[in-house]
Amino acid sequence: MLPNEHQGPWRNAKIERISQLTPRIKSFFLDVSALASRRAGQHIDVRLTAPDGYAAQRSYSIASAPRADNVEIIIEKLQDGEVSPFFHDIAEVGESIEVRGPLGGHFVWGPADGGPLLLIAGGSGIAPLMAMVRAWAADPAEVVAPTGAMAELPPVPMPVLLVCSARTPADLPFHAELLELEAARPDFTFIAVTTREPPPRPTDLGRRLDAAAIANVLARWVHTPRHVYVCGANRFVEAVANGLVDAGVPAAHIKTERYGGA
Predict the structure, then answer these.
(1) Mind giving me the DSSP string for 78-104?
(2) CA distance linking residue 132 with residue 189, whole number of Å
(3) If you classify domain 109-257 with CATH, what class do you get?
């Protein structure tokens, strides 16, 4: 991350809408007039300041597409967190919060970057990957020919595979939206992975996303990923990245982003 003086000024952004995504995750839609143009995968900083002057700051990835009318961030409530309880228990529509950004230039993707595109998320780590999916859905751009045993098939619009892991089906953010997109777009594949309850569909996985599960996912996809993005908690990202390399994905094709407490 760049030094503070290069991250831009703090600005006020109004909360325009709040939506309950899962039992523990809410979406907050912010007025974009305070924010510059952005790329899918970037984040913003949020700062809360108490009456005594104490300030707490967190970074949240942007889930909305770059051309969306507002900026969507998703926040999971952590009982011991400093910032997330405020958003879940106190913040209201119409309230202004301090933000700066957008920030980040490594974990970003746009249609011009090409594909095929493999996205793997753990829980609320889906946020920057949703921005990429939404950017792709608005402008799929590239056409890609299948490889390997499927090489005889005709070229298709640039394919995207999104894998999201959560404890239960109810904990899967954006689940309904992703199912609708998959039904509408044959070039988009969504696989849910649930670790504590059976998966929603037979095509989903009911297990941890270990090396064997990753190999299973890659074997089912007819495309060789050109870009891979992995986002989630530290241990999740480490395990997935290692599993991808074990499955033959070049490490140079893999970009990761990790998150901590909030």
Answers:
(1) -TT-SSHHHHHHT--TT-EEEEEEEE-
(2) 14
(3) alpha beta
Helices (H) and strands (E) in the chain, counts: 5, 13
Contact residues for 235 (Cβ-Cβ < 8 A; gap 6+): none
Q: Which residue has the tokens 């190999």?
A: 215
pTM (2 d.p.)? 0.90
DSSP-based three-state secondary structure for 25: strand
Cα–Cα distance for residue pair 65/83, rounded to 1 Å: 24
Start-end of CATH 2.40.30.10 domains in the chain: 9-101
Q: Is the peptide bond before 116 cis (omega within 30 degrees of 0)?
A: yes
pLDDT in tens, 152-196: 655 557 899 999 999 999 999 999 999 999 999 999 999 999 999
> Running DSSP on this structure, what letter comes out for residue 205?
B
Domain with CATH 3.40.50.80 in the chain: 109-257
For the domain spanning 9-101, the CATH number is 2.40.30.10
What is the gyration radius of the CA atoms in the chain, in angstroms?
18
| Bridge partners for 190 per DSSP | 162
Tell me which H or E stretch contains 256. strand 254-259
At 99-119, the pLDDT tens digits run 999 999 999 999 888 899 999
